[in-house]
Design brief:
- The complex is a heterotrimer of chains A (about 400), B (about 575) and C (about 375).
- Chain A has about 400 residues and is mainly α.
- Chain A is about 65% helix and about 5% strand.
- The mean pLDDT of chain A is about 85.
- By secondary structure, chain B is α+β, with helices and mostly antiparallel strands.
- Chain B folds into 3 domains: about 65-220, Dipeptide-binding Protein, Domain 1 (Dipeptide-binding Protein, domain 1, Alpha-Beta Complex), CATH 3.90.76.10; about 235-320 and about 550-580, D-Maltodextrin-Binding Protein, domain 2, CATH 3.40.190; about 325-550, Dipeptide-binding Protein, domain 3.
- In chain B, about 30% of the residues lie in helices and about 20% in strands.
- In chain B, helix 12 (about 340-345) packs antiparallel against helix 14 (about 390-395).
- Chain B starts with a helix and ends in a 6-residue tail after the last strand.
- By secondary structure, chain C is an all-alpha fold.
- Chain C contains 15 helices and 2 strands.
- The chains are: A mainly alpha (about 400), B alpha+beta (about 575), C mainly alpha (about 375).
- At the B-C interface, helix 1, helix 8, strand 8, strand 10 and helix 9 of B face helix 2, helix 4, helix 6, helix 10 and helix 12 of C.
């Protein structure tokens, strides 16, 4: 696995643009990790009478830091603003080039401010962490679900999954439980209040279905389940309903808007893409001789899927992973632009862009987040394409 | 293949040419058409069916009331009637002590279909509103004070209205109502049998005729299509979420009353264009698609005002309307039931900065429910200043202290440790977002954790206001020029069923409100108003923020006047400047 | 071939039926109350978003009139300790639910049969007879609203797809056949750029900078947004008089799709060029250009046809942003606004409409695919 990733990275780096894209994403990742230490309104290290304190770390850890500190000396972040710091003296959209009401070059807002005087540079940096978080987690969940469903459909096709009566009852039972959990949440707390519980529930559901599958070959087989047809059916329904419906409706179902509910909604939209690619690849692989010989030699279905199919199908899945990564970032920005999605306190690229709607003279709020968005999306798309090319060649 | 390529390149060339066409210069805003921006679709345009603010912006040119507050003097001014009648106190039974108003409708006043406006229309409207089976319930609670309508036997234009003595606004109720033509809305004369002094019992059962009438009267046709009024314009067309077109009446009767601002007819047609997005609206104005642009965003307004390009192209009106922004507080919430806590929260709103920075100066502070323009506004009470240390001190006095060192003050209530975590609900406008973000920062310094939740108004209604489960909500109240009746909103009678969503209850205030309601002497009533403001200022049942200024951009070619009456202008009085006519 | 066609066509109603399940189930979980909308529509309250209360009797009457008192579906699923029916009034219901939830943290589900007297049944029966009901916002018939909006979308979407495919395909071919390496690189980069640029950002920037004189007279290139004059009662005169407002949105949609299609066309051609038959053709003495135009082009077009079929629903859904920014009263804006105010009748109508178009375009693309690809044609027979 690591070996393949290394080879893919090597392949991408052969092209200049690939190298730049990778470097850019890596740099963005580092920036998003370090942002609290680069742009913040509290000191990194503070030596007070009671001893040495690390307010930034404290805030990251506990969610809040002590409001007022008397430091004998302190080490402060380079940019003395966080994305939420309100500097009302420089409110009303201070341009990067205008005369600002600041005391030194360090406190200057280098990329301008918004209506409340929040620093655009800090917003841009924190925005990168939101974009990467939303993109990565949505794409990961989509990858997981997509691989699961795609492999399932591709491998078993319409004829290979045979269940006995008990198992069919179990499967239907699991579906009923899922619906029950969705509607009332009586197993793990109210579903929409606790996302964590819901994810746990999904995991149990997934494990349950794998368990049923595994026992499939052990018990007497009676009913043939047309897995592939069912999954194709789901794809068709998905494709026919406009995404905007799922996006808006699912988002309005969540009580608390935030990164978690957004990730859940986006991955719900993105997984069929991964699943489709995976299914197609598995179908192709199934015809290969080494799989057929494995089947003949009596290795269990799960064993074949795990050791042969998944490993080989990961290629196209990775391509769609890269694309859903960029799609998730774009969708988040679009939703924030429309005033939906994240909570009011969060600052993301999309929410910065939406502020332009209130003052179109604030070109800096349009230009920088838009550019960042554009660069991330093109970098991810390019990497996706290169992965595709890598697999096409090998 | 070659030919195909050729074809597509042709298309490309065509496209480039097409897109390269420059926009034509905006046509001269002759008063053929007046294009007005409307923020959202008004949904219905009939004044007796709970009209919304955006609906009023349109129907005021189709329907006119008997009398209304004059846009400049804000005094009651006759429109459909000859003059404002004086109240006569009756001495005979059954109306002993009640008030009578002798109304005479203007001789030449006719509906837009040419039929004369008569006393019968007045009587019909009163009955239709009182009738429990109709949905025209906007004024039903007020119309119960109309005891009788007696048409003059000899003159169909004359009538006497008898008002209950128990309401201070008897005259306003009797005169500022909109009336509807009986021959249009009651074609079957279903209500003719009802006496004019009818009052309906709570278990009233309508007969088949009346039920049929109610169904027709409640239909969308009455609300949206069949709009016959006495105003200078008629409805031409209406496309939901796009535009509403009003057409000037030919041979309008109001021509004989040119000095009456409500009866003037200006532009040949008015096109209300529904543009929810502010930026889009400004772009449309710049492109010459709009002549009148009411705008909410102060930044955009200020920008355009400073813009050299538009200095001469537009006039900027900032009338102060009778309304205010406020933060509703839940007075029965365990954290907010102490008035010291409510005052402390009020100290956390930095209104000076909000008005000067976010509102660009277009707002006026207010201390209570009554508008600062009213004569009985209590000028002795000073707005609560932004003061974090004072807020902290008040919290400490009320027993809120940071005992566990987490930066948030807390208190033991009923043996339970309660942290001062407050949630403010906003409906998602940029303004309310900015105000709450700014306050959130100040609140943190005072040890109050303020979280912000964006929610739709309909949801706030059903989930928070209804079950009375909330801390803070950012809201707005619009009022009018009539003397205020604080009873409906602040009296403890109205906590469970009425509009006292804050569950404010203070016996002293209750008493004052009851007295105000029946006091007919203006000077005495004003004194009561003053006292009430003091009591409520002390209690701070809600946080009164400020009265926003209306911001309207008007094409410079138009002669336009602003007014404190909603929506801040009267588009039918707009004329073209002489200099602008070529 | 006939049987295949029949089978594919028969599938459409079943897909639509499944969609009706999905959207009905999801819409039941959206915490917004259509009854309030109807109360506002009927003039019983001021507006759905005012803070004014409504009377309980009105609420119950409307809720009953619109079947909200019926169970949702044929089969019901609820915790065993729940009563058969919760209160219809939202305030009372939320209190009841809280109480039931605190009463028991854990409860087994109980399943019950509701019979035909349920909301879904009543609704689908109407839909099948072609009645989508009225909009809760303005009382207009859903079919009228959709028809009005659809005219705009069809003009916008069809033109955008047509233009972008024509341009994209020819650019793809051009970039593959040109000998000028530099122009190839420039084209490739441009199409890349156009595809990766976020549409809403592109649109906002264009709207801000290129529709007014603010940034110098030369920047006033495009007509600004406009509202149609409804006094034009027939559609085509309206389109002609207001057609200029479509230029900028059309340009943006076209350019965005164009970037993608030209890239797809190019990579599809690259694949074909590397195939055996292409090399044989070259060795037979055909020039590179001839080989592509005579053989490669036709084969490379196949994947583009599938793209075309998914482009139609995709563009309709994607036009939401464009229509919102440019104030065009099309389907995208209609569904966006309707979802926000929970005007379910309209939402269902639009979703069905888009689903139907999608199904038909997939059917067409399958047929087209079969027609152009002899191998598939053989399989079908």
């Amino acid at each position: 696995m690591m070996h393949t990733i290394k080879r893919i990275l090597g392949f991408i780096q052969k092209k200049k643009r690939g190298k730049i894209s990778l470097l850019f994403l890596f740099a963005l990742f580092i920036v998003s990790l370090l942002t609290p230490f680069i742009a913040n309104d509290i000191p990194i290290v503070c030596k007070s009478k009671t001893g040495l304190k690390f307010p930034v770390i404290q805030k990251l850890w506990k969610g809040s830091a002590q409001a007022n500190m008397d430091c004998e000396w302190s080490l402060n972040p380079l940019i003395p603003y966080s994305q939420k710091t309100i500097d009302i003296k420089n409110g009303r959209f201070a341009s990067p080039f205008s005369k600002q009401n600041t005391t030194s070059l360090r406190t200057r807002h280098w990329l301008g401010t918004d209506a409340l005087g929040r620093d655009s540079l800090a917003g841009l940096m924190y925005g990168s962490s939101i974009a990467l978080r939303v993109g990565l987690f949505s794409a990961l969940i989509a990858l997981f679900l997509g691989l699961l469903v795609g492999t399932f459909a591709g491998y078993f096709g319409n004829n290979m999954l045979k269940l006995n009566g008990l198992q069919v009852v179990l499967v239907i039972g699991l579906i009923v439980l899922l619906l029950y959990q969705l509607s009332y949440g009586f197993f793990f707390g109210h579903a929409y209040d606790g996302l964590k519980e819901f994810v746990l529930f999904l995991l149990i559901l997934a494990l349950g279905s794998i368990g049923i599958l595994n026992s499939a070959s052990l018990l007497k087989q009676t009913i043939r389940v047309p897995v592939d047809n069912i999954v194709l059916w789901i794809f068709e329904v998905y494709k026919s309903i406009p995404n905007i419906f799922f996006l808006l409706v699912l988002l309005s179902i969540f009580v608390k808007s935030g990164v978690a509910s957004l990730v859940f909604t986006l991955s719900f939209i993105l997984w069929p893409i991964v699943a489709r690619y995976t299914r197609a690849e598995i179908l192709k692989l199934k015809e290969e001789n080494f799989i057929k010989s494995a089947q003949v030699s009596g290795i269990s279905s799960w064993g074949i899927v795990r050791s042969h199919l998944l490993l080989n199908a990961i290629g196209p899945a990775l391509v769609s992973f890269a694309f859903s990564f960029s799609a998730a970032i774009l969708l988040e920005a679009t939703l924030s632009f429309l005033g939906l999605g994240l909570s009011v306190e969060e600052v993301s690229w999309g929410s910065m862009l939406s502020e332009v709607k209130n003052n179109y003279k604030a070109w800096w709020l349009a230009l920088f987040p838009g550019l960042a968005l554009f660069l991330v999306i093109s970098a991810l798309n390019y990497i996706g394409e290169m992965i595709g090319e890598f697999y096409a060649q090998s | 293949m070659n030919s195909r390529l050729h074809w597509s390149i042709k298309l490309l060339v065509f496209f480039v040419i097409l897109s390269g066409c420059r926009t034509e210069a905006p046509p001269l805003a002759d008063l053929d058409t007046l294009n007005i921006r409307l923020k959202k679709d008004p949904n219905k345009l009939n004044p007796v069916f709970n009209p919304s603010a955006s609906s009023r912006e349109v129907f005021q040119y189709i329907f006119v009331p008997l009398a209304d507050y004059h846009p400049e003097s804000l005094e009651l001014y006759p429109i459909l009637i000859e003059k404002i009648p004086e109240a006569q106190i009756l001495s005979e039974a059954p109306y002993t002590g009640d008030l009578a108003f002798d109304i005479s409708i203007k001789e030449d006043a006719v509906w837009s279909d040419g039929t004369a406006i008569t006393a019968a229309d007045y009587a019909f409207t009163v009955k239709a509103v009182k009738l429990p089976t109709t949905n025209a319930r906007a004024w039903r609670s007020l119309f119960k004070y109309i005891k009788n309508v007696i048409p003059d036997a000899n003159n169909p234009k004359k009538l006497r209205v008898i008002m209950d003595k128990d309401h201070m606004l008897a005259k306003e109720i009797a005169l500022t109502l909109y009336i509807l033509p009986k021959h249009i809305y009651d074609k079957t004369s279903a209500l003719d049998n009802m006496p004019n002094d009818i009052s309906f019992a709570s278990d009233y059962k309508a007969d088949a005729n009346v039920v049929q009438f109610s169904e027709a009267f409640n239909s969308t046709s009455t609300l949206r299509d069949t709009l016959i009024g006495a105003g200078p314009y008629t409805l031409e067309s209406w496309t939901t979420n796009q535009s509403i077109v009003l057409q000037k009446q030919e041979n309008y009767w109001g021509k004989n009353h040119a000095d009456n601002p409500f009866l003037q007819a200006g532009a040949n047609s008015m096109v209300f264009k529904i543009i929810p997005d502010e930026n889009t609206a400004v772009t449309a104005f710049k492109g010459g698609e709009l002549d009148v642009l009411p705008i909410g965003n102060a930044g955009l307004f200020d920008d355009l005002q400073k813009d050299e390009n538009y200095k001469n192209k537009a006039a900027f009106l900032t009338p102060s309307l009778i309304r205010y922004y406020y933060i509703a507080l839940n007075n029965i919430d365990e954290k907010l039931e102490d008035k010291r806590v409510r005052r402390a929260v009020a100290h956390l709103f930095d209104m000076e900065t909000i008005i000067s920075t976010i509102e660009y100066g277009y707002g006026d502070r207010t201390i209570g429910h009554f508008n600062p323009a009213k004569t009985y506004y209590n000028k002795d009470l000073k707005p609560i200043p932004f003061d974090i240390s004072k807020a902290k001190q008040l919290l400490t006095e009320a027993g809120w202290e940071d005992s566990n060192g987490n930066g948030i003050v807390d208190k033991r209530i009923n043996g339970k440790q309660v942290e001062m975590d407050l949630e403010i609900l906003i409906t998602g406008s940029q303004l309310s977002e900015n105000i709450s973000l700014l306050t959130q920062e100040a609140a943190k310094k005072a040890g109050v954790n303020l979280s912000i939740t964006r929610k739709k108004m309909a949801l706030i209604n059903s989930e928070n206001i209804g079950p009375k489960k909330y801390n803070l909500i950012a809201l707005v109240i619009s009022q009018d020029a009539a003397p205020d009746d604080p009873y409906t909103r602040w009296h403890s009678d109205n906590i469970n069923a009425g509009r006292n969503y804050y569950s404010y209850s203070n016996p002293a205030a209750d008493k004052l409100m009851e007295d105000i309601r029946v006091e007919k002497n203006e000077a005495k009533r004003n004194a009561l108003y003053m006292q009430l403001q003091e009591v409520m200022y002390e209690d701070q049942p809600v946080i009164w923020l400020y009265c926003p200024r209306q911001k309207i951009i008007v094409d410079a070619d138009l002669e336009a006047k602003q007014t404190s009456k909603r929506p801040g202008y009267l588009a039918n009085t707009f004329t073209q400047k002489v200099s602008a006519v070529k | 071939m006939f049987w295949y066609l029949l089978k594919r066509t028969l599938r459409i109603p079943f897909v639509l039926l499944s969609i009706s399940f999905v959207i009905f189930f999801i819409s039941k979980h959206v915490p917004q109350d259509s009854v309030i909308n109807i109360l506002a529509l009927e003039g019983k309250i001021e507006q759905s978003n005012s803070d004014e209360g409504y009377s309980k009797e009105d609420y119950l009457q409307v809720a009953k009139q619109y079947n909200y008192h019926l169970p949702n579906f044929y089969i019901g699923l609820r915790p065993a300790h729940y009563p058969k029916q919760l209160s219809l009034l939202p305030e009372e219901r939320s209190i009841e639910e809280k109480q039931l939830q605190t009463e028991k943290r854990f409860s087994l589900p109980s399943i019950q049969w509701n019979g035909l007297d349920n909301q879904y049944h009543a609704w689908i029966k109407k839909i099948i007879s072609g009645d989508f009901g009225i909009s809760f916002v303005d009382g207009k018939k859903v079919s009228t609203k959709i028809a009005e909006a659809f005219r705009w979308t069809i003009v916008l979407v069809l033109l955008a797809i047509l233009l972008s495919f024509a341009l994209g395909i020819s650019m793809g071919v051009f970039s593959k056949t040109t000998k000028n390496k530099k122009s190839f690189e420039v084209l490739k980069l441009t199409s890349y750029f156009l595809y990766a640029i976020p549409v809403f950002w592109f649109a906002t920037i264009m709207l801000i900078f290129f529709t007014t004189d603010d940034y110098g007279a030369w920047t006033n290139i495009f007509p600004s947004v406009s509202i149609l004059d409804p006094r034009e009662d027939s559609f085509f005169p309206m389109l002609l008089s207001a057609g200029k407002i479509l230029i900028l949105p059309l340009l943006i949609m076209t350019l965005h799709a164009f970037g993608y299609i030209s890239r797809q066309m190019e990579s599809s051609l690259t694949e074909e060029v590397n195939k055996l038959y292409a090399r044989t053709a070259l060795s037979k003495g055909l020039s590179y250009k001839e080989m592509i135009t005579k053989h490669g082009f036709k084969n490379a077009l196949l994947p583009i046809i599938t793209l075309l079929s998914s482009a139609i629903p995709g563009t309709i859904a994607g036009s939401v942003i464009i229509e919102t920014i440019f104030n065009i009263p099309g389907l995208g804006r209609l569904i966006f606004e309707s979802i926000l105010v929970a005007d379910w009748n309209v939402v269902f109508g639009v979703v069905f409409m888009v689903a139907l178009i999608t199904s038909i375009s997939f059917l067409l693309s399958d047929l087209l695919y079969a027609k152009t690809n002899p191998k598939i044609r053989l399989d079908l027979q």
